[in-house]
Write a structure and sequence with these properties.
The complex is a heterodimer of chains A (262) and B (533). By secondary structure, chain A is of the alpha/beta class. In chain A, 34% of the residues lie in helices and 25% in strands. Chain A is built from ten helices and eleven strands. Helix content of chain B is 46%, strand content 16%. The two termini of chain B are 27 Å apart. The chains are: A alpha/beta (262), B alpha+beta (533). Chains A and B meet through helix 1, helix 2, helix 4 and helix 10 of A and helix 1, helix 14, helix 15 and helix 17 of B.
């Protein structure tokens, strides 16, 4: 289903070029639940964003069901994100001025072509999806009135809204306590089993990593699969390795990272 | 992204950031209000100046003459009138829509009456001209009043006047008078011919009552032209006209006749209300109520220079309306009446001695073409100052248009800053939208939609402000500014295209101001915005 080959990624800040990923090769099968672990700045989130079509500024190829993401136009890639992918972020990224149902129905605003829902149908579906994450009673609540676990479940409901085939979760339990994190993990497991959704979770939490079918470790821009010291697959050439490794991945907003690391 | 969804999203965002947008829109509101106010003022003034004072779609063609100063006199060299043939040639010029000949009354005349208005009868020398009634049909013919020639040969033949003995028999719109064309001897003729005493004046005669001009003294012999003799003769080519009046069968002593319809310029009433009434202690007149006012006309009688004929023509006139096409200071009659009067006191050729011709052109753009044709006919267009007035108004409108454009331009820069700030504040929201399927175009459309909505709202408020300011301006003018010639009831004109232009102007500048922020928002990398969260 997902096929990465020779993926390189660097961040540019003015004339400064900071390499992050070095020729990553990775395959993820349909319905598989995979965790990506690794130290901060190793390129886990970068990998996730690239698979999700949020970042096209890389070298190499990422194919999803045989379609090269980089070959897609902006509109096609937007449609891919809308219909095919559901994102779950560490800080939930809910819109505070909208109700839970409106947040969940947000993807309906940008739907194109077949399956486009009317506003009332979209809200009805949003209520259904909120019911699946046990938040039927919070349909009209604002996210600011919810607990962290409830907010993350709203975010998961938003990711599930368009019945995606792929869920990409970036530290989904990073801002939750262990009990709430466990509950969220159980939800992912259930979704994977019930809907056959491919779930890719970036995490620091070994509990979550152990609960997934497969763990991919990213370290220094390379993918190590299975155990920490067993490179599964790299295609970085030797010369590229002479470049200095980044201490950390450049962030637009370093505060959440700091919170996560804390 | 569907328009309905975009609209609801945009409205939500506008509500959410209303304080920012309120501040940002002040400049646009002021700019659009200025733009609409001054453009409407320019159009309103233009309407008055070029529509009434110097009509641009109607030019007046006069004979080309050269004035020569001879001592205290200025003598005109060249012809001073146009005939039927020339009028026809003018009408055949390319670009001419219609021609309306005008003729001045060339015999001294007086008007009597006014007791119902002024409390006493007034007597006034009159200056008059005649215009083709067709020129004023749409303007005057309403509310039961008509500006038409009731005594054309065709009308008189079709509807012969009914004999009568008193006005009551003729109804409100007619009077009982001598048949059309009847003349009476001039009452003051013998007195005027008397030599003035140079030495000791004789004993003062006992004052005699002045013969009333309103009634015809039955003792004075009258001459009645054959019914319609003046009418047909006046409007037919000279060759076709009978050289001598044919005797008629015994005409009735009195018949029901229509009043001679008379129009005056609104300027006359303003002059009266502003100056004349104060000098004589007369009441102020309501122009609307003056319509229907009746008075006597004595053609051929004058204190200044009466005709050489020994008779006068007595008719009765009625004010039927006001028009800016009327002679500025005097009475304007249907052309046929003036033709007949001029023939009666002059000769047959006077029936086609037009002093000018009003030429109607479809649009003002055709004026140049027609003016050239007129010059080729060795005639000239009467300089009314219309072009200078039009230029002045155009400059006025351009200056204030530029001022408002500068205001709106500065406001657009302000809007750009506000949108840059909002895009920065909302970058995470934009990132989430991109993550759930918004394309770069969707994000740009949201930002530009907000700008367009802001422009629509600000433009509407600006237009309302301009309209309110215009109403206040008009109210102040009506209440506190003394009347002056051509004083309009409103100085403003808000045509539909002005409203559309103001809104388009407002929307365009807002969208222009938001274009760069929208581009930046659309190109924002969602991964960078959302990373690390």
């Amino acid at each position: 289903m997902i096929r990465l080959r020779g993926m390189h990624k660097s961040y540019r800040t003015g004339k400064l070029v900071t390499p992050v990923l070095h020729g990553v090769d990775l395959d993820i099968a349909q319905g598989e639940m995979v965790s990506i672990v690794g130290p901060s700045g190793s390129g886990k989130s970068t990998l996730l964003h690239a698979i999700g079509g949020l970042d096209r500024d890389y070298e190499g190829t990422i194919e999803v069901d045989g379609r090269d993401l980089r070959a897609m136009s902006d509109v096609e890639l937007s449609e891919y994100r809308n219909r095919y992918v559901g994102f779950v972020f560490q800080t939930f990224n809910l819109l505070p001025h909208r109700t839970c149902a409106e947040n969940v129905a947000l993807p309906a605003l940008f739907a194109r072509g077949e399956g486009t829902l009317t506003p009332s149908d979209a809200l009805a579906r949003a209520r259904d999806v909120l019911g699946r994450v046990d938040l039927s009673d919070k349909v009209d609540a604002r996210p600011t009135t919810l607990s962290g676990g409830q907010r993350q479940r709203v975010a998961i409901a938003r990711a599930l809204f368009n019945r995606p085939r792929l869920m990409l979760c970036d530290e989904p339990t990073g801002n939750l306590d262990s009990v709430m994190g466990r509950a969220i993990l159980d939800l992912f497991v259930r979704l994977g089993e019930e809907d056959g959704i491919t779930v890719v979770i970036v995490t620091h939490d070994p509990t979550i990593a152990n609960a997934t079918q497969r763990t991919v470790r990213v370290q220094d821009g390379r993918v190590l699969e299975g155990t920490e010291d067993t490179p599964a697959s790299t295609s970085a050439d030797a010369e590229s390795e002479t470049e200095s490794e980044p201490e950390s991945e450049p962030e637009a907003d370093p505060e959440p990272r700091a919170r996560a690391e804390a | 992204m569907r328009s309905v969804r975009l609209f609801s999203l945009v409205l939500g965002n506008l509500r959410r950031s209303r304080n920012h947008f309120l501040l940002a829109s002040i400049g646009i509101v002021v700019g659009i209000a200025t733009f609409a106010f001054f453009l409407a003022l320019g159009l309103g003034v233009r309407q008055v100046v070029l529509g009434k004072i110097f009509p641009l779609d109607k030019i007046e063609v006069v004979p080309k003459s050269l004035d020569v100063n001879v001592g205290p006199l200025r003598l005109g060299v060249g012809r001073d009138a146009l005939d039927d043939a020339m009028v026809e040639r003018i009408g055949a010029l390319p670009g001419v829509k219609a021609v309306y000949p005008k003729m001045k009354l060339t015999v001294g005349s007086v008007a009597y009456g006014g007791e119902s208005l002024f409390g006493t009868d007034l007597r006034s020398e009159i200056v008059a001209d005649g215009v083709d009634p067709d020129l004023l049909t749409s303007e005057i013919n309403k509310d039961g009043f008509e500006f038409v020639d009731y005594e054309t040969p065709e009308r008189l033949a079709a509807e012969p006047p009914t004999p009568c003995e008193s006005d009551e028999q003729c109804g409100e719109t007619m009077y009982c008078g001598p048949p059309p064309g009847t003349t009476t001897p001039r009452p003051d003729r013998s007195r005027r011919n008397k030599p003035r005493p140079r030495t000791k004046p004789p004993a003062k005669p006992k004052p005699q009552p002045r013969p009333s001009p309103k009634t015809v003294d039955p003792a004075v012999p009258t001459r009645t032209l054959p019914l319609g003799a003046m009418g047909p003769a006046a409007t037919q080519p000279a060759a076709a006209r009978p050289t001598t009046p044919q005797p008629a069968t015994t005409p009735p002593a009195k018949v029901c006749r229509h009043f001679v319809p008379v129009i005056v310029s609104a300027h006359v009433v303003e002059l009266y209300n502003g100056t004349l009434r104060r000098a004589h202690g007369f009441p102020q007149l309501n122009p609307e109520a003056v319509r229907g006012f009746k008075f006597d006309l004595v053609i051929g009688q004058s204190m200044v220079a009466a005709s050489n004929k020994d008779h006068v023509v007595r008719d009765r006139g009625m004010f039927v309306g006001f028009s800016d096409k009327a002679i500025p200071l005097g009475l304007t009659l249907p052309l046929g009446y003036v033709q007949r009067y001029n023939v009666e006191f002059g000769n047959e050729e006077d029936a086609q001695r037009y002093h000018s011709v009003v030429v109607e052109v479809p649009t003002k753009d055709d004026v140049a073409q027609v003016a050239k044709g007129v010059a080729d006919l060795d005639l000239q267009v009467k300089d009314t100052g219309a072009e200078e007035a039009a230029l002045l108004i155009a400059v006025f409108m351009m200056v204030f248009g530029l001022v408002s454009a500068v205001i709106v331009g500065i406001a657009a820069v302000n809007i750009m800053h506000v949108f840059f700030m909002l895009v920065y504040e909302r970058q995470r929201e934009i990132g989430v939208m991109r993550a759930v399927g918004a394309s770069q175009g969707d994000i740009a459309r949201i930002i530009l939609g907000e700008a367009a909505s802001l422009g629509t709202a600000a433009g509407t408020v600006g237009l309302v402000l301009a309209s309110v300011a215009a109403s206040i301006f008009d109210h102040v003018s009506a209440s506190y500014v003394p009347d002056f010639p051509y004083k309009p009831t409103t100085y403003f004109e808000f045509p539909w295209w002005l409203i559309v232009a103001a809104l388009a102007f407002s929307i365009s500048f807002c969208v222009l101001g938001a274009a760069l922020p929208a581009r930046r928002a659309a190109r924002m990398e969602p991964a960078r915005v959302l990373s690390g969260n």
